[in-house]
Amino acid sequence: MMRQADNPQSVIAVENLGIGFRGRAGGMLPVLRNITLSVGARESIGLVGESGSGKSTLALAMMGYLKTGLKVLDGTARFHGIDMFAQDRRTLERIRGGRLALIPQNSGQSLTPSLRVGAQIREALRLHSALPESRHEARVVELLALVRLPDPEAIARRYPHELSGGQQQRVAIAMALAGEPEALLLDEPTTGLDVTTQAHILELLRDLARETGMAMVYVSHDLGAIARVCDRVVVMYAGEIVLEGTAGQVLRDPDHPYARGLLASIPKLSDTCLPRALDGRPPAPGQAGEGCAFVTRCAIAEDRCRSARPELVALARGSRTRCHLPDQVRSIPLSGEREAGQRSLPEALSLDLQEMAISYAAPDLLDRLLRRETNAVATVDGISIALRHGETLGLVGESGSGKSTILKSVAGLLPPLSGRVRLKGQDDLPARVEDRTGQHLRQVQLIFQNPDESLNPRQTVAQILAQPLKLYFGLAGQALQDRSAQLLEQVRLGAHYLDRLPSQLSGGEKQRVAVARAFAAQPELVLCDEITSALDVSVQAAVLELLDDLRRDNDTSYVFVSHDLAVVKALSDRVAVLYQGRLCELGPTDDVYGPVAHPYTEVLLGAVLEPDRISCPPCRQAMWSNSVTGAGLPLPAALPQTPWPGLRPASATPPKLRRWARDLVPPRRPWQDLTAPLGTDPFRAGGSGWPKGKHSFGEFPQASGYHNLTSEGDRRCT
Amino acid sequence: MAQSSTYQRPGPVQRFLGVMRDIAARPSGAIGLALILSHLVLALIGPWIVPYDYTHMNSALMLSGPDAGHWLGTDHLGRDTLTRTLLGGREAILVTGIATPLAVLWGGLVGVFVGLAGGRLDEVLMRVVDAFLSLPWMLKMLVLIVTFGTGTEVLIPTLAFFYGIPVIRIARAATHDVVARDFVQAARARGHGRFAIIWRELLPNVRDALLVEGAMRWSWMLLAFSSLSFLGFGVSPPTPDWGLMIADARGFMSFSPLGVLAPMVGLSSLIIGINLTADALAKALGIDRAQKAPV
Amino acid sequence: MFPEWAGNALRGDFGLSANGQKQISELVGYRLRNTLLLASGAMLVGIPLALLLGVVAALWRDRPADIIVSTTAIAAMTIPEFVSATLMILVFSVWLGWVPGIVLTSANAPLADFFPEVLLPIGVLTLVMTAHILRTVRSSVIETLASDYAQMALLKGVPYWQIVFRHILPNALLPTINVVALTIAWLLGGVVVIETVFNYPGLGRMMIDSISDRDLPVTQAIALIIASVYVGVNLLADLLTMIANPRLRTAHMRRK
Q1: Which residues of C touch B253 (CB under 8 A)?
Q2: Alpha-carbon distance A244 to A168, whole Å?
Q3: ipTM of this model?
């Protein structure tokens, strides 16, 4: 299909669109207000915003679709001049999935479970393709190959549940491509995928957009992902467009206070400071009031901002911003100023883990009654880490690498198969939580990932905080009440929160309560299990600041588990990298994140998406381009000529390392893509030149030969 | 600076009243609640307000139609139908009113215990429960009645036993849901005792599911009780009971349809009332209750 | 004692009844046939009807059709069978005089003799069974309608009725297989009451009679038959689900 590259006419044009729902009081509450936006041919636009900003609603509205309960209040959404909300069902059916296709958020649930993947793609072809029926079978295979799925014939015969998350996402993309769309809407297509898988999906999408000339609307909360794919970025806040501009402008030096705040709250690998928190929360639908929706959180707000709602105005730089004070916006800093960490640490040990091996298969009651032995295989093995008093250790790795397992074991919830846990250089801690003394228990506190799960929904904040205070300190009456209030002050919540139930708190507030509960015990060591990953970025920054404050005030040690390398970097003194239950790197943060890293660490770092590509260290950039152009596996640009400290010299030769790195890649993930040739026009070539079956990686060698690590700061590699 | 704060949770009475208000705020709940309450009041004060003695037979007036003396006519023995209908629910309410809490209590306790113990004990017991549930209820009831005979003192434990078994399932599932959640793990990691965890973390979260289940059990138990009465295995004859009345009046339907219709209205209104209330209760407590087959 | 009895029972020999000293297998044979006539009649009408009404109620949710169907179903489910049966006799037999309200045919008469007497019992049984299955079908379809894949199919441009037949029904009706089995099991209990109400010479009434007569051997035999039918039906449902559900199928094949 020929399209002119400089076609001025827009493919998607949204004009003054307002969407709302009927509130309890009867009035219409807007979720989208005055949205005006156009997407040209070959253009890819990113829609960014935190949860509840209305970005998904807008994307679906472009297809003429509203979730139940929502209504168009005013305005239009046009596709090639066709008003999508004024069409009958037949016209919509012709356009949807054909000229205008959607890639959904959760493809695992968006693929019909009872139909084979091939049948679902064939259905799209039958509805939207001009190809004769006889060619459909072959086209399905071509499409699956186009999205770089290995062995497409076999995949076509599978049911959705037989595919991994990344594969399902690729199938959804193939299905969207079946109708050879002119525009593609992507609704958070990589949320919930592992970082490495996400990186590859994004790379695929970008190439597809470049090669096919499709217009793309990419919805995401993740600025880093947007930066990879989009030319132009639209920032949404409380149902409004607050800023629109080129990706370079918006992601590097945006012209709106909210966008600047959002950018500053994202932890970045290049930062030496903690990300800056954006306090407060967006207004609920209908609560925005007279003035600017962002006014309550804005650092430069004036009286005018409270009384009059700003219009979206074009600036000389080419961006459009919804702000009364576009000239002063740039005074808002884009990064935090607070230095994290860098405290002098005493020699005294806080936690000492020695050769821990842990398995998930716990003996059950019947086994215990019969005193039977269970023979379990260790899922986590050979973990030896020493943590100094007041130190923060970051623990990173992909899902399933055993990060949380280690924390559970230290907390006594999951007794290890072997190995020892020592606290403050004293005797070994009993393995089971039931055998530990009150002093032991008090000193080790665990904070969980999701506060919705870790706070009992039937207890008020007061009851939640009272539990450790009563248990460890025997507080009661006024003393209990005073101490609870004091703890809430420490986590920057007022004492009036005491009466509330968790359901009456926001996500960030809940997590603060969980933090307060942990600190109620005055612990020596706090174990943080992905505690910011369920939160929006601006809230995450606030929790990170809070953790930093608390460790300054209390001299607490942290073990901070996260899959997000940038978050870990912001807070940690030292970092340990886990791969499939084994430590592969452990060292001071700057070293681990430094230019020479363990190959697996490099793989992880290469997959980190940052909003501002320029600020990445050079070697990361090189790696990123390596992986996107498929030139090979991401490997450090310069391998050391001399053996690394702690490594046996003979084993550090590059070829071996290269092979090891390749084998290290998690099996059963579509990494094969990396070596696939790109740049061919898939529609013309029909995917026929696709090489098949030549990428099969062996299983990861089970940690053979790297048990000989003794001192800290070493890298393990055979 | 600590603000003074009265962080007392509402007591159980206030909570109960709150839930009741919530139920009554829904139209179906209000109707259901009204039906149940009027049946309960009737069961309590019935003997003092009915026009006749329920055993009083008037041989001159057999199967008579409605008139000023007998608003709903008389049965085949010349007894007043209105009197017997008004009193016909007492036995049923008494038996099921005792058996239902018993069933929920024992089923709930066992369910929570297995749910906590987990592992193979749980698996084995659930197989047994499944096997038991897989037999038609009527068969099981009848077998027990053959063995132990009929009568209130047998029916209460029998019903409590049977209807407690499906409660095990519900309680176990609810326990599993709660135990898997992090706040229970958090309490364990803090070092609270087992009973403190069960009492403070687990039971408040399992309780609601059991309450709704109890309400449903009540309606099914009534159904079973009246069916047994109808078949002649429940209440013994002079006592007025809806099921028995329908069985007796069935033969004379063509002469005196009110004889079957009156007890039908009595029984149906109570059962429908319980069902409406149970639905409203589930919604008030935020439990999504799917319609289940009466097992 | 028991093992011997059970062994004989497997061969169809249940021994002699306590009072009449007749062969139980002889007594039971016709009764079983009659009950099967009742049950299969109800299933033949009830299952397709329930599927149809359930899907209709779900697709036109909260419209008049759904409200009528759902309300009737709830009423039919909550009111005891003997009440609805008696009510139907009163209406269709006593007042309208359309069909006989009581079965007077003897147990060993040819099947044809049961018409039209059998129609009303089948009707009651069908009503209650339909109500149960319909409720599940309705909620299952509604749940599937709200699923991400139904939404995706819509946004893929699939016409409405194709969405219903290709994407929704196969997934929504799968869980109802087990409910149908459960309902059949329930039916075996309900049949006891209904047979008594209509004086129908089937297994259920025979069971009530044998219990009243304290005829233990007969009771035992009937209990065994009903229980095995039940187990068989459930097993069949599990097998069907496994064949129809790709998820379970592959899980089993993987395990080998």
Answers
A1: 86, 89-90, 94
A2: 32
A3: 0.80
